[in-house]
């Protein structure tokens, strides 16, 4: 039984990139042996185990053969005679097919180190085309390491285009597509991911609500990311993901947004924020900032029961570097109208159904005073 560190931990350490997790491959072992050593198996049919203390993943060396359509249509062979080289051969990219033994010695049968040095994302072998999920993974890697100068090898890019043309991406579940998108959002590289997806003609399969993606759009998002970094804006990581998502999908229509929710089943925070951002853009484009219209906007975004949605919307505006003065005005109007309470209206003599009208009248007056 031999244990090797594999995948992202080896790759990222070699390019001085932060290592997030450690995955291991175990050669010459069996499920029974792993269980007897205290490892906990993940799933019933997949030879992956969690270390009893560190909880890192340890996978038995395995070979795979295609047995059906899509990224789940594989039969795994994890016999203890499977070699490390055979296990590494099934991996997607050469830079992910480097292993390290317990003494720190690297095992690199497919020249992953050379591709790391040359900043190339190159597929290991023909088995790449059997798994459509790898199209999205390579696009995500290209986005993540773009700032380091990585590009997709021409032969790999051509293979990805062929896979898209053959309809391979149509076998992926929408939930799996969203998971890849979410990983890009966590590193604020979704715009670069979209550029690759557009280059390989895969937008129709990944995000059909976007008919195209241009370099100008990429530059716009890159400018927003640089603005946040330069100004050292205090935006937490979860909020930044939502901001990045909304600016990337700003061009989609309300009808498209509904379709997006139904197909990708995106979290409500992302969907509601994008909807509010588009609603605000429509409001700003109309340039009718009367107290009545401002109150109508506040009602539409449910400022009274969901103030956190409005606060998140303000963060999106900061990230998008647009209408900063208007954003401040809206924030002032929101604070003034929120200060109006039902108790104040009742004290003025309003009763029953008239209380709602009284609240609206008082809020309009508060907004008008703020604007004057």
Automatic annotation (TrEMBL):
Gene3D superfamilies: Beta Polymerase, domain 2, cca-adding enzyme, domain 2. Residues 3-122 form the Poly A polymerase head domain. Coiled coil: none annotated. Residues 149-210 form the tRNA nucleotidyltransferase/poly(A) polymerase RNA and SrmB- binding domain. Signal peptide: none annotated. Its cofactor is Mg(2+). The keyword Nucleotide-binding applies. Keywords: ATP-binding, Magnesium, Metal-binding, Nucleotide-binding, Nucleotidyltransferase, RNA repair, RNA-binding, Transferase, tRNA processing. InterPro entries: CCA_bact, NT_sf, PolA_pol_head_dom, PolyA_RNA-bd, tRNA_CCA-adding_enzyme. GO terms for biological process: RNA repair; tRNA 3'-terminal CCA addition. It comes from the Bacteria. One of its GO terms (molecular function) is metal ion binding. Belongs to the tRNA nucleotidyltransferase/poly(A) polymerase family. This is Multifunctional tRNA nucleotidyl transferase/2'3'-cyclic phosphodiesterase/2'nucleotidase/phosphatase.
């Amino acid at each position: 039984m031999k244990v090797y560190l594999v995948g992202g931990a080896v790759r990222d350490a070699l390019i001085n990139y932060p290592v997030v997790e450690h995955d291991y491959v175990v050669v010459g072992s069996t499920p029974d042996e792993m269980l007897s050593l205290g490892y906990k198996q993940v799933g019933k049919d997949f030879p992956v185990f969690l270390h009893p203390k560190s909880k890192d993943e340890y996978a038995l060396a395995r070979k795979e053969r295609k047995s059906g359509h899509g990224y789940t249509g594989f039969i795994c062979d994890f016999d203890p005679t499977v070699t490390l080289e055979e296990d590494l051969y099934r991996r997607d990219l050469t830079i992910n097919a480097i292993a390290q033994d317990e003494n720190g010695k690297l095992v690199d049968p497919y020249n992953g180190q050379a591709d790391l040095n040359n900043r190339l994302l190159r597929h290991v072998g023909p088995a790449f085309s059997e798994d459509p999920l790898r199209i999205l993974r390579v696009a995500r890697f290209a986005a993540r390491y773009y700032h380091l100068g990585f590009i997709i090898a021409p032969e790999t890019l051509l293979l990805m285009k062929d896979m898209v043309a053959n309809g391979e991406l149509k076998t992926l579940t929408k939930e799996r597509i969203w998971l890849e998108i979410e990983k890009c959002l966590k590193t604020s590289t979704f715009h670069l991911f979209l550029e690759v997806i557009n280059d390989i003609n895969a937008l129709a399969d990944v995000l059909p609500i976007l008919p195209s993606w241009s370099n100008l759009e990429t530059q716009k998002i890159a400018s927003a990311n640089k603005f946040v970094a330069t100004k050292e804006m205090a935006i937490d990581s979860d909020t930044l993901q939502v901001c990045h998502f909304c600016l990337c999908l700003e061009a989609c229509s309300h009808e498209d947004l509904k379709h997006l929710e139904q197909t990708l089943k995106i979290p409500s925070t992302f969907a509601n924020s994008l909807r509010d951002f588009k609603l605000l853009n429509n409001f700003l484009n109309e340039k009718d900032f009367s107290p009545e219209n401002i109150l109508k906007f506040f009602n539409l975004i449910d400022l009274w029961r969901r103030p956190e949605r409005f606060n998140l919307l303000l963060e999106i505006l900061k990230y998008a570097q647009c209408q900063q003065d208007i954003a401040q005005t809206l924030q002032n109007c929101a604070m003034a109208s929120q200060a109006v309470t039902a108790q104040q209206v009742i004290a003025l003599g309003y009763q029953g159904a008239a209380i709602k009208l009284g609240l609206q009248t008082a809020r309009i007056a508060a907004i008008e005073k703020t604007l004057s």
